[in-house]
Amino acid sequence: MKLATLLLSAAFIAVPLAASAGDMSKKSDKKDIVDTAVAAGSFTTLATALDAADLIATLKGPGPFTVFAPTDAAFEKLPAGTLDGLLKDKAALTGVLTYHVVSGKVMAADVVKLTSADTVNGKSVTIKVVDGKVMINGATVVTADIEASNGVIHVIDSVLIPE
Question: Exposed (0-12), middle (13-18) or buried (19+): which is 136, by Cβ within 10 Å?
């Protein structure tokens, strides 16, 4: 399955991103994670990356998946050349994209009770609440609980890069 599909599923960024994420309904009727993210319009970079990594079919699969989806603005925060380098290295790109996906459907009420979560790529992300905001590693969840037919998307304001 394509990782781009998974990353398209979730987007969280303050006011400008919240406005974009606002186009995503809280409950997506029969749309999978990928279609839900694409419909939002603020995940074109994620979609491109998922396609390049051949992860779209996977994220359109039965799941369930929890996707921490970075917006286009999140990708723009990466250091110069990082995205281009990842797009040229399918294995590295797949590793980054699968680091944004957790097996199962983990809603915000459950996420805040966790201190970490194992991602599809085999590495864990750290979860904590700081000043009432949920942090996934260094990324802030700006929109939570965007439901899809095969899981849930939580929008984040930064791209997660595994160590």
Answer: buried
Domain tally, the chain: 1
Q: Say whether pTM exceeds 0.85.
A: no
Please tell me the distance from the alpha carbon of residue 3 to that of residue 54, in angstroms, as a whole number.
7
43: in domain: yes
E strand residue ranges, 46-138: 65-70, 101-103, 116-118, 124-130, 133-136
94-106 confidence digits (pLDDT tens): 999 999 999 999 9
Residue 140's CATH number: 2.30.180.10
**Nearest-CA neighbor of 117 among 103, 131, 97?**
103
Give the pLDDT of residue 9.
32
Residue 41, Cβ density class (10 Å: 0-12 exposed, 13-18 middle, ≥19 buried): middle
Single-letter residue type at 135: M
Dump pLDDT digits (tens) for 106-131: 999 998 899 999 999 999 999 999 99
Instruction: Let me know if residue 163 belongs to a domain.
Output: no
What's the pLDDT score for residue 41? Answer: 84
* Token duo for residue 7: 């990353």
